[in-house]
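Friendly challenge for the regulars: who can give me the structure tokens for this chain first? No prize, just bragging rights.
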Amino acid sequence: MKKLYKVYFLILLLLICANSFASDKISLSGEWKFQIDAQDVGVTEKWFEKNLPDKIRLPGSMAENNKGDAITLKTQWTGSIYDSSFYFHPRLEKYRKEGNIKIPFWLTPQKHYVGAAWYQKEVVIPKNWSDKRIVLFLEQPHTETILWVNGKRVGLQNSMVQAHAYDISKFLQAGKNVLTIRIDNRIKEINVGQDSHSLTDHTQGNWNGINGRMELQAGPHLYFDDLQVYPSLENGNARVNIKLGNEAAIKGKLIVELSAKSFNSGTPHEVKAQRFSMISSGKSDSVSFILPMDKFQTWDEFNPVLYEMEAKIILNHKVIDVKKVQFGMREFRASGRDFLVNGRKTFLRGTVDNAVFPLTGYPDTDVESWKKILEKCKAYGLNHVRFHSWCPPEAAFIAADLVGMYLQPEGPSWANHGSSLGDGKPIDQFIYDETNRMAKQFGNYASFCMLAYGNEPRGRQVPYLTKFVDYWKAKDSRRLYTGASVGGSWPVIPNSEFMVRAGARGLDWQRLPESISDFRDKIKQFDVPFVAHEMGQYCVFPNFKEIDKYTGVYRAKNFELFQEDLADHNMAGQAEDFLYASGKLQALCYKYEIERALRTPGYSGFQLLSLNDYPGQGTALVGVLDAFWAEKGYIDAKEFTRFCNATVPLTRIPKFVFTNDEKLTAQVEVAHFGPKDLKGVEIRWVLKNPEGLVYQSGKFERKDVLIGNQNLIGNIAIDLSAIHKAHQLNLEVAIAGTSFKNDWDVWVYPTVYPALSNEIYYTTELDEKAKNILENGGKVFFNASGKIVKGKEVVQHFLPVFWNTSWFKMRPPHTLGIVLNEKHKAFEYFPTKGYGQLQWWEILNKAQVMNLEDFPAGFRPLVQPIDTWFMNRRLAQIFEAKVGKGKIIVSSTELSSDVKNKPVARQLYYSLYNYMCSEEFKPIYQVDWLMIKDLLETPSKQQFDTFTKGTPDELKPNFQKTIAN
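First reply, four minutes later:
Bragging rights claimed.
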């Protein structure tokens, strides 16, 4: 009889809970009590038993509430600093003074705090919750939480990837209750690495607080603890793995009902509900069912059809609990070197998301914010995002599902710079715990296609990551796994299902630029898909107009420092020109590197670092978009997608500078990774000048363009003998009837020039003859190539600064392209824009520059290299000046009328010479002879000194030692 009463009681309990199986909720957003625990005494002094004296609003961070410490030179940042010159260099002393501290390494928060802080709130539990399971749900605390309820310790949770959820049913009472939470954002026993994007000050910041949803959730004691959907396109069904939570210890027969319906498809599809019987053991049972998905629709980047599955627990004809999950019928796998999505080959065009949130300092948790970000990525031709050493909130996965984006979240670790893997430290287990939490919370999302432990580790990484990959390959087949995302010097994890690594990336522009080469020789060792790690990293000059956007937690003190320093070097008015010119060079580099990847047979994708700026690690302005995902004014999505898209016309051209006794030859190809083959398309080409005047055009026979990147279309050969003057031309290839087109600039120069007059004294030495000619009103062209001392330390390549010169301690190159006035008469016979186009490679690459630090404040050269914003030196490649009664042009690059095999240099000299012979040759500034001579004799006053020895390169793993382990 007692057993019967017990069963009746449990059934009654479940029926009561069933009345609100969708989970009643009480929001905890709003005002909380608060206290900083800088001395870490709160536990000992039992703060969980007292009323905290301060107040704070949640969700939010301490910094958002103006809590924490003021920024000083002694602030204990979470993140590596390799260029400590800021702390010592006399030039930067004013930025180290109290009240004017401007840190150049990253954005500066209004307040900063690392340590324990306490949060407390009184909540009222309704009487009808007395028999329910009650969970405290905190979507994103940062990072470790300890919870007390009514003075009793509930437990500790530490996750950077999953919500902290505490079952507090046993600790509550009807009426008033006090929740006390201690949050600690210090790196303690579990060290993921201080530069991990999950917590570093380089990116989102090491904030203390709670972000996202905060609520009490009431539900039944028999419930869905986990539900994972495994689609099978081959079998036309979905396997549903269920784990039940059974706090009431119910035993006996249960019914699980499953149904599904598409909710974002133009053609609705509903899967009829199916019921499955199971026997409950009274514990947390795990079961698996097969749900037929007849006439299902698939999810991919082109048609991201999603389903909502509804699962019900039914006991005695009553619904006890309901759970809804979002999923897609998709298959993401590897076949040889190819990624296949639902059996179709794809090419990953990705960006790295570095957890940059310049207003809040923590990730957005609403779907609309993430949709805007991912739709911007899509607009720029991307279909993939890697989250560098962090996992985004659930809203990002929901948005990616809706937009159609393939995601690679990672464990929250860059186990380097103070941490390591495989050495028996707590992080070894933490990585497994975190990735399992990721799979449980986000595993159903169709966009969750790839997983890595995190970024560039050190330690005994090979055995550790090999086991990690094996573990996940056996556990969950819904995505692909790799050990880590790494640079080219890291060891290969042999069982990885795909590679994310450097080594097959970059532009070989130490040689003449061309579009013949690809990366096939650099990936031939791999038999799995290869994705380029952190491609690009080409820098652009800061956009100082961006400063006003920082109205939240952060201030762009780094930008302010660079702006003021530029003014101190008498170039404040050139900032926008520097931005535009360096941006055009950056865009050019991204174009040619992405095209090189698309030309490579067997290449599977790339991950840009990144589409938007990275404001840390010395301020890495590598994005064509700013930290707010906004355009900077030098390239837009329409132009970017000409070379970064699902379908891209390509050419293999041996060079881009020709003389008129040559032929322009090009092999035309198409990289096509669209939803289906293009049948019988016509591909056209046209060669025209900047004004649109057609020089020659043609078209190829109609043909099919198949999915892949080895679609050879045909060859173009254009005779250039009819061109008698220097011209810039543009070759465009377009697929008729589509929006897909791409283009390349080429330059044609004459082989024969008119004879030059002898009124100019040309010299390679600043000799007495030159001095006398100038004193007597003559004209001198001084070719100073190879002789410059003041500025010799500045290394110029045609490529711009990589990542930034601070993080890599002034590793060359040091410049960001050039700026010039294209309408100046000096360039009348030299076709150019006001920035460095490809023809300038011959002039600029590895050419010396001159440091004009002693020249008059307003002095501007004809051709001005743009210095790294950490130094802001006023540089010159070519300048004009009045000296004595005469006039001079000085060039630090090799220019002359008889220079061999350098048609660009010869043409530029011809243009400058004609300018010097004209009435237009009227330099503005008077410069002393000794000032020009000083360029050849005296080193620069402003020199770079890091005052430290460490460098990121030194932290790379010892390859041989790692293999041996």
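Residues 575-599 form the longest helix (25 residues). The longest strand covers residues 251-262. Your move, everyone else.
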